[in-house]
Amino acid sequence: MSIHVICPGCLKRFQVAARFAGMQGPCPNCAAVISIPTEAVEIHGDDDDKPKKTDQQRSLSRPIQRHYIEFDPILAGQYALGILGVLLFTFLFGCIPMYAIVRSFLATLGLCLVAFPLVLFGYQFIRDRDHVFSFTGGELYYRTGFAAAGYVILWFGFEYFLAVTQAGGFISWAYFLAFAVLATLLAHLLLVMKTQDAFLHYCFFGLSIGLLRFLIGLGWFWESSGLIRYSNAPMPPLLPGM
Question: Which of 96, 107, 116, 220: CA 20 to 30 A from 130?
Fold first, then answer.
């Protein structure tokens, strides 16, 4: 079900999903703030009046076309280079022997740093493109920030359950799916995404973090700590000569 809205700035007509009812967002044409009605209003034409033959009225009688974001090869290339850079940087850190506590600290810091761009990247490419309404500007950033913080908390909870239960293999994936369900609800509420898109959004986030976790030397999340490479660096002497 869709809601028809008219921009108060440029007077363009748009069609948005019913789940945006009662919300506000920028017009994709002039960036003016549009208030979405709480109920869909269906407009019927007068059956007694015959449609005019003018070009202007023909354009008004046509159904509202859906707008899609065109593929930007330059932006896609920048994203690809950024992803490759993060993967390479993480792999180089993973090849350096260090204490397990230092490696865990770096992994935690990296998780907090990449959470926001991963959530933003996922929203731009996974969100519903059937309707013109989407979050932009400051509202997009604070919603992305809250969603990223929620994802990080859920991932810490996921890691905690794995450590406490010492789960491996199938059980680890079952925990992952359970936390993905919770994250789906979070993305649905904050980013106003469809259920399947919200689920796919967190899976993209979780699998990306899982790959970075492996590259930094902590292994796959279903592996035991004994399989983690370079998990224990040799103890340095307390004093020179000892």
Answer: 116
DSSP 45-86: --TTSPPP-SHHHHHHHSPPPP--PPP-HHHHHHHHHHHHHH
Paired tokens of 16: 């948005």
Three-state SS at 33: strand
Q: Which two tokens stand for residue 143?
A: 């919603």
> Coil, helix or strand for 112?
helix
- Name the residue with tokens 């948005």: 16
Type and span of the H or E element at 16:
strand 13-17
- In tens, the pLDDT along 27-51 reads 767 767 777 777 654 444 444 444 4
Residue 161 identity (one-letter amino acid) = F
Q: Are strands 2-6 and 24-26 parallel, antiparallel or unpaired?
A: unpaired
Is residue 3 classed exposed, middle or buried when 0-12, 13-18 and 19+ CB atoms within 10 A define those classes? buried
Give the other-Cβ count within 10 Å of 13's Cβ.
11
